[in-house]
Structures are given as C-alpha cells and as structure tokens.
Amino acid sequence: MTVTGIITALIVGLVIGALGRLMVPGRQNIPIWLTMLIGVGAALLGTVIARAAGLADTSGVDWTELLLQVVLAAIGVAIVAGVGGRRGVSRY
Questions:
Q1: Which chain regions cross the lipid bilayer (predicted)?
Q2: Do 28 and 21 meet the contact criterion of CB atoms below 8 Å apart?
Q3: Per-residue pLDDT tens digits for 2-48
C-alpha cells in the first residue's frame, strides 16, 4: 500500500467513523483516534460485505456500500462507548 493509499484510508475512516458517531444518540466518551480506527474497520468490513453481496458493482457512487459502512461504524461506536462507559463512575 502506498502512502497516498494509507492517507486516503485514514481520511475515509475518519469520515465514516464521524458519521457513525453522529448516528449514535447521546455522548460517547471515546477519543477521536478510536473513532477513526472504528471507521477504518467499518469501511473495510463494509466493502468486503458489499462486494460479497454484489452491491459494490455500480457505476458512480456506491450509496448502499457507504450506508452499510456508516451503519457498521455506528454499531462499532455504540459497542465501544457502551463498554467504555461501564468502566466509569457509577450513577448511584
């Protein structure tokens, strides 16, 4: 992978992670680097699933693939924020 490919993957991961984070209601106490990591993972997993399902072979923008990636990022952010939130101070 080239340097340009790595930078592109990080930018796409940041955008996908941010969109996924916006979909999750409430406040998530996770750092931006973890959001970006979740976004990169969701983007890769979403691409694999879309290609396996035959959804990535369209002309133009693959909206279904993008939506799948954002939903996977939202699920990832919700899981990580939920697990991290349990380690915090008890409300009671």
A1: 6-24, 31-54, 66-85
A2: yes
A3: 788 778 777 888 888 888 888 888 888 888 888 888 888 988 888 88
Rounded to whole angstroms, the Cα distance separating 49 from 58 reads 15
Phi, psi for residue 36 in degrees, rounded to 5: -65, -40
CA atoms within 13 A on the CB side of 68: 17
Domain edges within the chain: 32-54+65-77
End-to-end CA distance of the chain: 50
Nearest CA among 52, 41, 50, 51 for reference residue 68: 50
Distance CA 72, CA 88 (A): 25
